[in-house]
# Entry
Amino acid sequence: MSVLATPIVDWSAMWKICVVALTAGAGVVVAFGFLLLGLQLANGARAGGFRLGGYALSAVCGVLCLGVIVVGVYAMTKKPKSKPAKPKAAALVIPAGPPVKLLASSRGS
# Structure
């Protein structure tokens, strides 16, 4: 399949896009889950060390989630402009070559 689609698909770019999408998509979800876990540990802990650790975990994960959002918005605003579309050629193309004899006509003779 890759042999047939090689002229159409840039496989090295497709690989990079899939890795970044998987990392960003799943990574942000996991980081947000650890943020919620850290808040749960901080609110449920009675000792000071666990409370501070829970808040530290949630702060690091919150900064990570906000950083990914900022990078995504920046990437969307700085994407390259698309090239203007070329004007379409005429639909009727007259072939160059010897004159062609008309075999059928819609005119009644």
